[in-house]
Amino acid sequence: MTKRGAMIRKWILQAVLLFFVSSLGFVLFYRFVPVPLTPLMVIRSVESLWSEQSVGIHKDWVPLEEISPAMQRAVLKAEDYRFFDHNGFDYEAIQKAMKYNQTHKRKKGASTISQQTAKNVFLWPHRDWIRKGFEAYFTVLIEFVWPKERILEVYLNVIELGSGVYGVEAAAQKYFKRSAKNLTPHQASLIAAVLPNPRKFRIDRPSIYVMARQRRILNRVAPDLPKEEESTLLDFLDLKFDSEEE
Fold this sequence. Notes:
Blueprint: H1 3-30, H2 39-47, E1 58-59, H3 69-79, H4 91-101, H5 113-122, H6 129-145, H7 148-158, E2 165-166, H8 168-176, H9 185-193, H10 208-219, H11 233-236
Parallel strand pairs: 1-2
Helix pairs in contact: 1-6, 3-9, 5-6, 5-7, 9-10
């Protein structure tokens, strides 16, 4: 190997090591500290500079205990029914999505709340195989470092819920003039109903599709929420919740 080749190899190894160390550091840091900003928030705000209306960043971090159980159950019913069952990847949902996508033009996803949290906190929004690879890596990492409740707490505080609106507290204040802890099941289900595409679907002006989805979320039996506040991944592996087909 030439001297130049050895130097390039050394740089690559150093870059890989730096990535693993820094990624683990951020995951450990966000285990205890509220996430102040995400790549998506920055990207949306910068993109808006070239549009007709500039979009700010409206968010208000609240702990999980200050988010209504109705809101927590609504996102579980809408996005990840087996959240407390799986280790970050819902293989049953993946198989169903693959089978569905073979016969339908409109594709169905199977991302769990853990995967969405990993993407929202650490990665860019555009779909590509590189991002999916990093998403899988960060999903495994947060599943082992964060308790399930922490993953759900971060998810509920960073999800996009309208133009420049991030997290259920900001959405509750903007659309219902109340705090997230006082959201009713009806309001929580409406917020959860727009999650497939919060830029297309509106909470303040719900379409027929969104209202139909809201009714399905409302009527679906919800999984119980665990009572332990500091449980870890291993504590949740034995929890079983009955699932229901939509």
